[in-house]
Amino acid sequence: MKQSWRIAAFAAVIAVLVIALLPYVWIILTSFKTRVDALSDTPIWLFTPTFKHYPTVFLDKGYLPLVWNSAIVAVSTTVLSLVIGAPAAYIFARHNFKAKEDLFFFFLTTRMAPPISIVVPLFLLFTEIGIIDKLIAVIIAHTSFNLSLVVWMMRGFFADIPREVDEAAQMDGLSRVGMFIRVLVPVAAPGLAASAILCFMLSWNEFLYAFILVAFEGRTLTVGIPGLITPHGTLWGQVAAVAVIATLPIIVFTTLVQRHLVRGLTFGAVKG
Amino acid sequence: MRGAFMDRYISVWFLTPALLFLLFILVGPFGFMVWTSFTDLSFALPDRDGNLVGFDNFRRLMRDTLFWDSFSLTMRFMFLAVFAELLLGFAIAQVLFHHVRQRRFVLTLLMVPMMLAPIAVGLIWKLLLQGDFGMVTYYLRKVGILGDQEVILSNSDLVLAAIIGIDIWQWTPFVVLVMLAGLMSLPREPYEAAVMDGARPLQIFRDITLPLLRPIIALVVLLRGIDAFKEFDKVFLLTGGGPGSATELLSIYTYRMNFRNWDLGYGAACAFMVYFVVLIMCSIFYKAVYWNEGRPTARTDRPT
Prior knowledge:
The structure holds 2 protein chains of 2 kinds.
Chain A: H1 2-30, H2 35-38, H3 53-60, H4 64-94, H5 100-112, H6 115-128, H7 135-160, H8 163-171, H9 176-187, H10 189-205, H11 208-213, H12 221-224, H13 236-256, H14 258-265
Helix pairs in contact in A: 1-13, 3-13, 4-7, 4-10, 5-7, 7-10, 8-9, 10-13, 10-14
Chain B: H1 2-8, H2 10-36, H3 56-63, H4 65-99, H5 103-110, H6 112-115, H7 118-128, H8 135-142, H9 159-185, H10 189-196, H11 201-229, H12 233-238, H13 250-259, H14 264-289, E1 290-291, E2 295-296
Antiparallel strand pairs in B: 1-2
Helix pairs in contact in B: 2-14, 3-14, 4-9, 4-11, 9-11, 11-14, 13-14
């Protein structure tokens, strides 16, 4: 009885994993297939790999700058969000003031705001001040949701630090600002790292803001993806290569902070 | 002296940059959107350069059957996807919790779909669902689920099921992750007491596990609901809202009004409606999951 349950559970888990991973494995395989293999009407699982799609699409077709754009945007918004957001999170964790929870709710609504609603006025505003199609436009837009994420996530991490740590620092004669920078930030470093990786992921994966705000020079990798699909003769090998490069770094990164991921994605409500 | 001054107003110094930034980047544009929704601004017609028209856009919205079709489609998409994700995710979490020892390893692999950029997910499934050479199309035809000439993405009867299925594929792992964290944080005592009293497993599940997990379930449903309501990327790439308007979710409809028709006044009214619904779901989320000093009721404190 017990044994058969174990086998059934094992089979179920394997089945779930196969369904979860197979589509992604398929796109990786496709990125190494020749055109004939990729377009075969019966799926081909074993084939002689070709490595030409990656250099073709990233070097010859000029997709490499898009990778840099994505990286610059993601790093900038991450740094900006942490620098502005962590101090605010600390105040929420340690201080009391009027309307604190209302303000906190305001941060939640900004994190949840539908991009399609915000992006139109943002598009008009950025056109007006002349930063449309520049990376700074996307950096600002992405910081709008990452900032709130940092505030929500870091509030929990700061609140987890025992008050004795603060008291000890004050005994040592540190000012409150000094205490924050020299004591609390280092103690909360794992939380900051987790927040940073989440910000990076959300920015790297974001499409709609970037799609509207940068069309040419400042295109990020996600913005470059729809353009690869043409009604006739889509080059699926190259498309797949772009998809792999657009996703693999994130998978590697986030696996490293898996523990904190749940917490970030549930706004601090659930500790993984 | 300077330090003391900094310390005295530390709340102000530390909060102001964040607030100013959000004011500039979100509240400003939001106000502008509301204002635009009362004008006839359009980039397609030269004489419509932002004259105030009162509630005209909203009156038009009320009568716009395409908008309400899109609204009900979005609701169906949201409810079906979230419901399925919840059931599936809960079941998988239960199996992992009770029967699997190498949970961390399984989770690492299981998490892959939710890490992918949604636009890349759209791309992956576009390839898989191609009519002539799509891998999934091939096997679905092979087992007879799909007719020989049928192509899912251009069949208006199947395409909604497909985008719901893809959302389930991407986000069930998230539900598993959160549910598992919830299960692992449950206290032992009620279970021991129940076993002593001779309760049956089903009873234990209904009378102990479900009530204890209720905050977590509320959290998952609301977070996923809000996200599903805003869905854009995957569907935009997969179908662009088509065939016809079979998958034209609210975000895509709003996108079309603004950036295809350039009817910005009316587009702003649509955008406002989307924002409004999300805001309502947000406050339900806050009330249901958070209370008292921002300490979440759904908080789980045992590390995995």
